[in-house]
């Protein structure tokens, strides 16, 4: 259902059928926010319309026509979009050499190019209003690589790089950008939303193979609480000074610190060689 409650912000969320998307949509609706709830199968999310001022739309982020139609429908219903949350995503387990090109391309089309599509069609109105907030769901895997997730890492590293450039371009126009980097949370990402390669190479059994089995095994037992995570996202969006990077979960925080420490150590060890690559100063 939709109303004309114009004093509440408008949130547009992709990938609401499960996981963070569903939890976030439920939370912001309960807060009274006007919310555009989207999924490839709208029947899977129609129950969310009962929670508040919701517009339920069919949206496959890999389909440019659907992306444009969904943004237009949201703007027609609510006048504008205050917060775009690019949550839709899939996973894929495989060593780099084991990975199947069609699966990798499908994952990039959802995780990266689908996210880009939504940004491209939402930005024009945000620019005109000189107001808006773009939230891109990345992962701790967008900051540090993990065996068996090489190409998933690549999609999330791409989201990180795009977002870092984007905020520098649009913040002078009044538009905020935040990347969310969770560690393991009790969603069905590892159990249902991530395929794996059928091409298994024995040489990777103790690296990629072991990691893949371990991640599958803890699905549903991760330390991260999705409800606390979506509360944190809303808190950050509503803050006076939102971060460009929002880590979620102790494992994300410790993993990011370890990555920074490793980089600093390696940079320092090779500083002389690094600095020696420039032309000599006169």
TrEMBL record:
UniProt entry tagged with the keyword Ubl conjugation: no
InterPro entries: KR_dom (IPR057326), NAD(P)-bd_dom_sf (IPR036291), SDR_fam (IPR002347), SDR_oxidoreductase (IPR051911)
Example GO molecular function: oxidoreductase activity
Keyword Acetylation: no
First and last residue of the signal peptide: none
Regions crossing the membrane: 133-152
Ketoreductase domain ranges (all copies): 9-170
Keywords, ordered alphabetically: Membrane, Oxidoreductase, Transmembrane, Transmembrane helix
Entry similarity comment: Belongs to the short-chain dehydrogenases/reductases (SDR) family.
A Pfam family the protein falls into: adh_short
Name the record gives this protein: Oxidoreductase
